[in-house]
Amino acid sequence: MNRLDLQKLQSIRGYPALSILLPTHRTTPDNKQDPIRVRNLVKEATDRVLAEFSKREVAPLLTRLDNLVSQIDYRNTLDGLALFVNKDVAYVFYLPFALKERIVLDETFATRDLVYALNRSPRYWVLALSEKPTRLYEGLRDTLVEVTEYGFPMVHEGPGGTQPLPGGFGVRKSAYRDEHQRQFFRQVDDALAQVESTDTLPLVIVGVDRNISFFSEVTRHGNLIITTVTGNYDTAPPHELAKRVWPMVEANMAKNRAQALQELAAAVSARRYASGIDEAWRAVQEGRGLTLLVEEDFHFPAYLDADGLHPLPAEDATAPGVIDDAVDELIEMVLAQGGSVVFVENGALALHQRLALITRY
Fold first, then answer.
1. Higher confidence at residue 239 or residue 161?
2. Could you tell me the residue range of the domain that residue 217 belongs to?
């Protein structure tokens, strides 16, 4: 699940929109109960829908729900499962984080838990370079999920790939093969550009030295690469590749946290910062948000003042008109403006009421 998926879900309006969320299990014997839990929740959801509408009115929704449930792959579930269905669309997401079991029938889909995970969990892309094929994975902490959009997985179908190299006197086969391999990795980089334009994340490159070298020559995304993993992982399943990649990503993110704190100190000296959620909220509303630093466990239920410039603390996060977490709202605004967000250890921002913003000016 990436930001494009989230944007699609959030753009859908119309009652009834049905969301079914539940925790699931990766391994046996615990996952034996998952199909039973799904069936029970689907029955409960169906009963709730039919309590408000006739069967004829919601037939498209119920048909889509039944079809979606029949397609769930319980052999490959992760820690959470999310089903979103209305009369026009049906989506299922296998999520590497636990969800609270609930059914929501509303004008919009219940995406709060997804927003939280996308904002609060370390995320990155993994590009596994190969001619047969190059695969793209979305990483969330120590879990990789293969992306099968934007042309991925991509196979080298030119000469030296699925097609033979030309023969004949005077043909330099190695040079010919190398040039077509470069062309293939340019195509890979073009597809990657589409991915990064919808959800700009750090990038991990995996592959043998030869492929990494060719890709490095042609890529426009060198500034996003945080680490490379050398070796042949063509047949490695995602969970095995994740074991190799995640420790390196984790080490890089620790380095980024330290660097962000140094940059904040410099910004404080230059008076180019906002301290605390109230100041940061106003600065972001003015379009000045560059880098937001947040302590890992900081949440702030709030309601806004009449001008929308000041988030005021709310005791009840579920009360009408209350933003259940203004920190997540602030994160979304910063990212929408092309800024970045860095989570730091609890206590690291004690002088800034747990949240600080480096401003553009």
1. 239
2. 123-253
